Amino acid sequence: MKTMLTKGSYKIDIDYGMCGNCGACVAVCPENVLHLGPIMLVSDDDECNGCRFCIITCPADALRLMKTSVDFHE
Fold first, then answer.
1. What is the pTM of this model?
2. Which of 69, 56, 72 is nearest to 11 (CA)?
3. Which residue, 3, 34, 43, 70, could crosslink 12 as a Cys pair with Cβ 3.0–4.6 Å?
4. Which residues partner with 13 through β-bridges?
């Protein structure tokens, strides 16, 4: 059995108490999952591929990546 990670296999958890809405994570996201809203950061988790670039880049450590249960078997 082989598990393949695909878009939508992850959810980005945003701690809005820590997020400064700086846009660093938005700038590095290759899938354009994260967007700056007028007041807060917004995520489109259906496009997340789990690369973790946003997690590594966030200066406030406000993001967490959570795996969902989407598995494909060969």
1. 0.78
2. 69
3. 43
4. 64
Task: Give the three-state DSSP class for 35.
Answer: strand
Within 8 A by CB and 6+ apart from 36, the residues are 21, 23, 26, 42
Tokens 């700038």 belong to which residue? Answer: 27
User: Would you identify the CATH topology of the domain 10-67?
Assistant: Alpha-Beta Plaits (3.30.70)
pLDDT, tens digit, 9 for 90 and up, residues 38-68: 889 999 888 898 999 999 999 999 999 998 8
Q: Report which secondary-structure segment, H or E, holds 65.
A: strand 63-67
